[in-house]
Amino acid sequence: MEYLFLSLALLIIPSALAGLSAAPYVPTKKRDVARFLKLAEISSKGGSPPKADTAPRLPASGGGGKKEKIVYDLGCGDGRLLVAAAKNGAKAIGYEMSLLNYLFCLLFRRGIKVKLRDFFNADFCDADVAYMFLSQKAHNKMGEILARQMKKGSRIICYVWPIVGMAAQRIDKEAGRPDMYLYVIN
């Protein structure tokens, strides 16, 4: 009985801490993954991206001799966004603080890298794209960090909430869907 309690505590406590510090687990809607790919300018042929669930896997070069984009998902949950990015030629890296979500990605997701750690102290200087679906407070905090660290021309994409104090270059609105905010580092 002790082992069962300890095992449950090891799985539940990190998830609760992740929810308190950044956001509870609420995944990006599957129908919105293609919107992310378009805003991130990640596609297999350079045009409109294929549907996220039917995207062909490309070689690591991203095809066409282009440098592959490095995409970070902060609080990557079940990894669905990372998988779609990887299938379209990006190097996909996620940060997750929930042990349950991390283990899910480790066991069931291929072609992506997920780190079990706090992203607030991570280095994003190599990022081409950073995606966030966090709490409003976490968006604001990470927006400041990413704006300092990311290189010129890199993209920050936020789902649902904007970054207060930063001007979005584009707001993707779709009827009945949450807004997506695109920020480009100057």
Report on this model:
This protein has a 7-stranded mixed beta sheet, with helices on both faces. It has 5 helices and 7 strands. The protein has a single domain, classed as 3-Layer(aba) Sandwich (Rossmann fold). The chain is α/β, with parallel strands linked by helices and 186 residues long. Strand 1 (70-74), helix 3 (80-87) and strand 2 (91-96) form a beta-alpha-beta unit.
Count of beta strands: 7
Please work out how many helical segments DSSP would assign: 5
Distance between the termini: 56 Å
Rg over CA atoms: 16 Å
* Strand order in the largest sheet: 3-2-1-4-5-7-6
Task: Look up the CATH topology.
Answer: Rossmann fold
Strand % is 15-25%
What is the H-and-E element order? Answer: HHEHEHEEHEEE
CATH arch. level architecture: 3-Layer(aba) Sandwich
Form type: globular
What is the class in the CATH system? Answer: Alpha Beta
The average pLDDT is 84
Sequence stretches where pLDDT stays below 50 over 5 or more residues: 46-51, 53-64
Secondary-structure-based class equals: alpha/beta
The total domain count is 1
Which terms summarize this structure?
186 residues, alpha/beta, Rossmann fold, seven-stranded mixed beta sheet, globular
